[in-house]
Amino acid sequence: MRREVMTLCWGRWAALGALLFAVACESTTAGETALVTTFMEAAFDATPGGEFQLLGELRSARIWRWDRAVLLRLEGVRSPAQEGFARSALAEFARLSGVAINDAIAAETQNFRVIFDGSEAFLLGDGQLASCYATFRGRRDGEVTMDVTLSTARPESAQRCIRHELMHAFGFLGHSHRVRSVLSYLHNETQLTRWDKVLIASLYDPAIRAGMLRQDVAPLLQPIIAKNLARFPD
Ligand SMILES: [Zn+2]
Q: Ligand 1 centre from 1 Cα, in Å?
């Protein structure tokens, strides 16, 4: 009799354990699924306009990322503090992506400009004003140059938007609002979140290359996202 009660108790605990395990698994899977969808929207569904300008090639069937070193040039009048915050944000992206960022020795070799501009704000394609914008020129499967323009009139507002623009400048040419991310207009994030770190590291996974088609990237993503969620636990 006692043994039966014990068995029943263990059975209940086992059932509860299985339920908790199932809930935990489900929530991990839901998080992975949300990030996979976010990745696909942000990497492929770029719509020209707003504070992101896509010039030269508008196809969204291909992914883009830096597959070569960034040759950086800083232009425009800026204070040491303004240059400092831009370089520190760039270093964060270099660390997460593994992309080398070197100062361009000559102007003609640069492929990435950070332009400091004294304007209070910039008039965007949709009639809104913004303190930062990014411009992509080139082809997703070829040569690309990237410009990130920052207002120096109100430095605190440029600090708030620089990581949003660097997400574009490192390959997330679109927007997504599913997860708490600097890319989302609905979440007022100014520092990279855990989800941003997972997104950047996943885009720069060795299995992904600039110019790959949407249908070739999609099946690779779930394990890549899962791996990077484990890499960035918080
Ligand atoms: Zn944007």
A: 67
Find out whether 56 and 188 touch, Cβ atoms under 8 Å.
no
**Cα 49 to middle of ligand 1, angstroms:** 9
Q: What is the pLDDT, as a whole number, of residue 28? A: 60
Q: Is residue 57 part of a domain?
A: yes
> Ligand 1 center to residue 52 CA distance, Å?
5
In a domain, 72, yes or no: yes
**pLDDT tens sequence across 69-102:** 999 999 999 999 999 999 999 999 999 999 999 9
Q: Where are the beta strands (DSSP E) in 124-170?
A: 129-130, 132-138, 144-151
Distance 113 CA to ligand 1 centre (A): 17
Q: Is the pLDDT of residue 3 over 80?
A: no
Residue-range definition of the domain harbouring residue 72: 37-231
- Classify residue 227: in a domain, yes or no: yes
Token pair of 6, please? 């014990």
C-beta separation of 155 from 81 below 8 A: yes
- 218: in domain: yes
Mark the residues whose beta carbon lies below 5 A from ion ligand 1.
Answer: 51-52
Please state the domain count of the chain: 1
d(CA 119, CA 103): 25
Q: What is the CATH number of the domain that holds 221?
A: 3.40.390.10
> What is the reported pTM?
0.85
The predicted pLDDT at position 20 comes to 44
